[in-house]
What we know:
Number of helices of chain A: 5
Largest interface: A-B, 35 and 37 residues
Strand order of the largest sheet of chain B: 3-2-1-4-5-7-6
Shape of chain A: globular
Shape of chain B: globular
Structural class of chain A: alpha+beta
Number of strands of chain B: 7
Oligomer: heterodimer
Radius of gyration of chain A: 15 Å
Amino acid sequence: MRLLTHNFLKSNVRGTENGYPLTIEATTVRCEESPADREFVLGLLPKVNYPALQAAARQLNPHCDPPLPDLPEDLDPSDAGGNERLDDATVGALHRVLFDVYLVEGWLVCPDTGRKFPVKDGIPNMILHEDEI
Amino acid sequence: MSRPELTGHASLFYNAKEARKYDSSSRMVGIQREITERAIELLKLPSPRGEGGRPSFVLDVGCGSGLSGQVLEEHGLVWVGCDISRDMLNMANERIEQKREAALQGNESSSDADDDMGDSDEESSGPRKKQEPSPGDLLHHDMGSGLPFRDATFDGCISISALQWLCYSNSKDQIPKRRLTRFFSSLYKVLRRGARAVLQFYPETSEHAILISECAAKVGFAGGIVVDYPNSTKAKKHYLVLSFERAYKAPQGLTGAEGALLNEERAGVRVSDKDPKRGGKRHGKAPKKKKGVGKTKEWILHKKETQRKRGRETRKDTKYTGRKRPTRF
């Protein structure tokens, strides 16, 4: 599961007030390399919740080899003008963090209730128990 | 043949064996591709490389072994899929692995070609292999319990041949109407305003189709069911097209009258040798099988290959395969 997807995932267990973002407890992480597509990344950026992305990158970093590139401290994803001015290195870093890092085994933990969703083979199991629906 | 939905839970029907069979059947792959292409057409997404170059993020409900996801990638769409069957998702993973390995080999052998690729200003038409987004992420999830995403995440949603499973309950606490309503109300939330959903499904009865439409309308969607080829049992397809625009009217379905060629293609899908309308004196009855026409050696070898792909035990191909047998007496 890429961090792009993790950025949108939340717990929808009944009664959860704020099941977002899910904390990552990683066991196995896989890093790949794919060519960064500037237009693509800037096009998707407005959707991304930046603080959640930063937190997720921090949670995965200990398992990444080579370590993930640093993301800029402040970034407003909805600021289209500002984003256009981002340099290629930053866009490359964003691309790497969003698309090239895969959580293969681990857990996604709800920040509200602590409910743990297992991740196996890159696929999170979000199936709810009968009493959680 | 009874409907799969009547045999039990989706994850039980789509077990490892069934998943492999599904994925290796060229007929199934072809049909699913066609349906996905039609769904993408009905989705009317802005071109991913159009103005602003903003790529679309699409949800594939009941993505199964990733057949529809592959088509989404070919259209340059970023997608996330969910399915209730772990075995089907494992097949999807296998497909992704194969694609990744093929890409790695391709990259090694064509590293010179990469230098000519240039930046992202690629032509919008033609094969997009190198600029295809990476394969979609998969989730193991039951759509009847809602969708675990934050609000206004997706620019579109498709579902191929999955929605009808919500109409059947597999345990006493599964009430179809409740599951359908929960699914649609969460779909309403996770779609961006202005986004659309196209959900192809196989209704067993018109009551099912009505139940599904009503649950969708109740949560606030506008839209309707588009029926392609309503007069053909095999080619008939139902697409539930949902929109946020109150004035939205679902388009007309295809009827096959769009052109003789389309008719022929469609006919190729549904008409078998047994179609009485295709002439021949054996009206309505199975055609007489002539050995020379029906079962050539070529056909036999091809059939054995297909069976091998399915994992069935097949004899080796030898000089005796498909040879002309001596007459009986």
